[in-house]
UniProtKB/TrEMBL annotation:
Domain named Protein kinase: residues: 47-332
GO biological process: signal transduction
Any one Gene Ontology molecular-function term assigned to this protein's record: protein kinase activity
Protein name: Protein kinase domain-containing protein
GO CC term, one of those recorded: cytoplasm
Length: 332
C-alpha cells in the first residue's frame, strides 16, 4: 500500500476532490479483483484516434484508442501499475458544463462505481484540455451505448414489463417527487424478497445501496432456487421450499386470480401508452433548488410494492400546475 501511496506524487488532476476520490479507490484495493477495478487519472494525451460517436443532453461521446491500456496489477519491482490491452478501444463520455461542478460529477462517478462491471466498466477520469470538462473513460461497447442504469430500475423494468414512470411527464415536478421518495409502482404482485432488494438498490442514500457483487451473488442464489422450484413442481414435491419459493408460489396464485391481469403490461403481451413527455434518452437537466433526496417515511416497511399506497396519498407538493397521476384513485 505504501508504494501505491508514494505513486500519488506522480500525477494530479488539478482538482483536490477528484484526486482524493481516485486515491481512495486505489488505497482500498488489496485483492486482484479490487485492483482490476480501481480507477485512475488519465491525461488526455494518452488517447489517440479519437472519433466522435454521438451527442446527448449530458454531453458528447467519443471512441478512442487508449495508448497505455488498463491496469492489470501493481508491480512492486517497478513501483507502478502493470498494464494490459495497450491501444484498446475506450469510450470517452464528456459531460457538459462539468468544469466547475466537481461535486455533481463526483456523484455520477460514485454512482457508476456502485454499478461496477455489470453494465459498463469505468476505467478512470480525464479532462478536455480546451473546455476543462471532465471525462468518464469507459469500456467501449460495439453499439456505442455507454448509458448505465441502476440495478433497482433494471429489475423493476424486467419484472413489471413497463418503463419506469412511463405514464407521466419527465420534468421538474417528477424530479422533486423522486427526491421526496416517489418510486415507480408495480402492476403485479411481486415476492417480498425481490421488492426489498429493489428498495435497497433505489435507496435515496447511495451509501446504503448494495454493491454490485452483492446483488450478483443474491441473484445467482435466487436463480438456483427458482430452478429447484420448477423441478419440485414437475415431481409434485411441496415441502422443503425456500422462503423465496414460497413467495413465488403465493404471488403466482394472487396474480392468476386477480383482476390485476387486466392492467396493460408488455410482460403480459399487451400494449401501454407512454406519456408524450416521458423521455428515455440522455438529456441535460438543469433543475434548481431540488430538495435533499430521501426515502418515503415507510420505505422499508413490509409492503407489496416499492412504495406504499399510504405514502402516495400523503405525498403533497405545492407546485403550480402539478399534473401527475400517481395514485390508484386518480389523485393529482
Amino acid at each position: 500500500m505504501f508504494e501505491k501511496i508514494r505513486n500519488f506524487k506522480n500525477w494530479t488532476s488539478g482538482n483536490h476532490n477528484v484526486d482524493k476520490f481516485i486515491q481512495d479507490t486505489q488505497r482500498s484495493a488489496h485483492t486482484i479483483y479490487e485492483i482490476k477495478n480501481v480507477i485512475e487519472w488519465i491525461p488526455n494525451d494518452r488517447f489517440c484516434n479519437i472519433e466522435y460517436i454521438a451527442k446527448g443532453g449530458f454531453g458528447k461521446v467519443y471512441k478512442a484508442n487508449w495508448i497505455d491500456g488498463c491496469i492489470d496489477k501493481w508491480s512492486s519491482d517497478n513501483r507502478n501499475w502493470r498494464r494490459k490491452d495497450q491501444y484498446k478501444f475506450v469510450a470517452l463520455k464528456i459531460l457538459n458544463n462539468s468544469e466547475n461542478v466537481a461535486s455533481e460529477f463526483m456523484h455520477e462517478i460514485t454512482s457508476h462505481c456502485k454499478v461496477d462491471n455489470f453494465v459498463v466498466k469505468l476505467y478512470g477520469i480525464s479532462q478536455d484540455p480546451k473546455t476543462k470538462n471532465y471525462i468518464m473513460v469507459l469500456d467501449y461497447a460495439k453499439d456505442g451505448d455507454t448509458v448505465h442504469m441502476v440495478f433497482g430500475i433494471i429489475m423493476y423494468e424486467v419484472i413489471s414489463g413497463l418503463p419506469p414512470y412511463y405514464d407521466m411527464s419527465h420534468d421538474n415536478n417528477l424530479a422533486i417527487k423522486i427526491c421526496q421518495g416517489f418510486r415507480p409502482k408495480f402492476n403485479i404482485k411481486v415476492p417480498q424478497l425481490i421488492v426489498q432488494l429493489i428498495k435497497r438498490c433505489l435507496d435515496a442514500n447511495s451509501s446504503s445501496r448494495p454493491e454490485a457483487k452483492v446483488v450478483k451473488k443474491t441473484l445467482s442464489q435466487w436463480s438456483k432456487e427458482v430452478i429447484i422450484l420448477e423441478n419440485y413442481k414437475k415431481i409434485n414435491i411441496c415441502n422443503n421450499y425456500t422462503e423465496l419459493n414460497k413467495q413465488i408460489i403465493e404471488t403466482e396464485n394472487v396474480n392468476k386470480n386477480s383482476s390485476i391481469n387486466s392492467i396493460s403490461s408488455t410482460s403480459l403481451g399487451l400494449s401501454y401508452k407512454t406519456h408524450p413527455k416521458a423521455y428515455y434518452t440522455s438529456r441535460l437537466l438543469n433543475f434548481n433548488n431540488l430538495p435533499e433526496p430521501k426515502n418515503s417515511y415507510d420505505y422499508y416497511e413490509k409492503n407489496d410494492d416499492i412504495i406504499s399506497k399510504e405514502f402516495l396519498e400523503s405525498l403533497q407538493i405545492d407546485i403550480y400546475q402539478l399534473n401527475m397521476n400517481y395514485g390508484s384513485n386518480g389523485k393529482e
